[in-house]
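Dear H.,

Thanks for agreeing to be a second pair of eyes. The structure we're designing against is below in token form, covering all 272 positions.
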């Protein structure tokens, strides 16, 4: 039996024991069991397996998988990641529509090892909502704006990145399907505070999956994904509204700047 088989055996046995104990302790009725099966069937039919799991369970997976990790703190990936976003070199502007709305955000920083050494050639895989809280490839049809506000940005020779994008907005996770119905039944709202998503990668280092949250967001203390917001990931972009500066940059409205450095811990040795 291979290592994967024995891991599956161990984890499945444990899961089954936990579920059977849950049924026993909560005196689950046959009717409740059938309703749960129907709910999970609908979750699958409506394509919400990732959504449901990411809202209620991924925080725990993140905590378990990243326990004791050094470098920048992690949080959930969520259901809106697309793996093949365009590759761009820093400095760059994220792909966006000609009439993309929302304040410009100039996002800069350095990717570093956990010892503080800059990492040239690191890849910052960015994705975010637009100013209406919509994600390309999900809320915005793929053919309408492919990879809108998504890119894999390579850091320069100093390990720095310099990205022009738009301020993200808070959004409600999809409410029309079974995940939304469950939240409504629990009398819980469906809002996520505004955030930028990123995976940061560099050879020889553990990939970092995290998010940066905007401090002044009204939902910052009540994310529907309980536990996803962490203090060290809350940022407060600076607004710039000097008329001469705006004119020089050819911006028609105030813009924001945000600087944040990412620290990657070394990859886990396979031999360990
Ligand atoms: Fe998101």
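And this is the sequence the design step returned. I haven't edited it by hand at all.
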């Amino acid at each position: 039996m291979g290592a994967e088989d024995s891991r599956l055996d161990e984890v499945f046995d444990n899961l089954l024991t936990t579920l059977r104990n849950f049924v026993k302790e909560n005196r689950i009725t046959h009717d409740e069991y059938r309703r749960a099966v129907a709910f999970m069937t609908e979750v699958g039919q409506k394509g919400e397996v990732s959504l449901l799991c990411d809202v209620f369970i991924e925080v725990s997976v993140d905590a378990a998988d990243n326990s004791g990790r050094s470098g920048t703190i992690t949080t959930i990936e969520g259901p809106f990641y697309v793996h093949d976003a365009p590759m761009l070199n820093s400095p760059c502007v994220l792909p966006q529509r000609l009439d993309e709305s929302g304040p410009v955000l100039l996002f800069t920083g350095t990717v570093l090892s956990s010892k503080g050494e800059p990492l040239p050639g690191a890849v910052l895989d960015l994705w975010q909502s637009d100013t209406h809280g919509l994600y390309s490839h999900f809320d915005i049809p793929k053919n309408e704006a492919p990879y809108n506000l998504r890119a894999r940005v390579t850091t320069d020779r100093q390990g720095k990145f310099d990205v022009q994008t738009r301020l993200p907005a808070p959004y409600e996770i999809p409410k029309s399907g079974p995940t939304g119905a469950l939240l409504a039944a629990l009398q819980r709202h469906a809002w996520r505070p505004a955030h930028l998503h990123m995976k940061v990668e560099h050879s020889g280092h553990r990939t970092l999956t995290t998010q940066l949250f905007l401090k002044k967001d009204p939902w910052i203390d009540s994310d529907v994904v309980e536990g996803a917001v962490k203090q060290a990931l809350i940022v407060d972009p600076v607004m710039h509204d000097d008329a001469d500066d705006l004119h020089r940059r050819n911006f028609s409205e105030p813009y924001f700047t945000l600087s944040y450095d990412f620290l990657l811990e070394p990859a886990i040795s396979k031999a360990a």
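Two observations from my side: Helices lie at 3-25, 30-45, 49-56, 58-65, 178-185, 243-249. The chain has a mean pLDDT of 96.

Warmly,
E.
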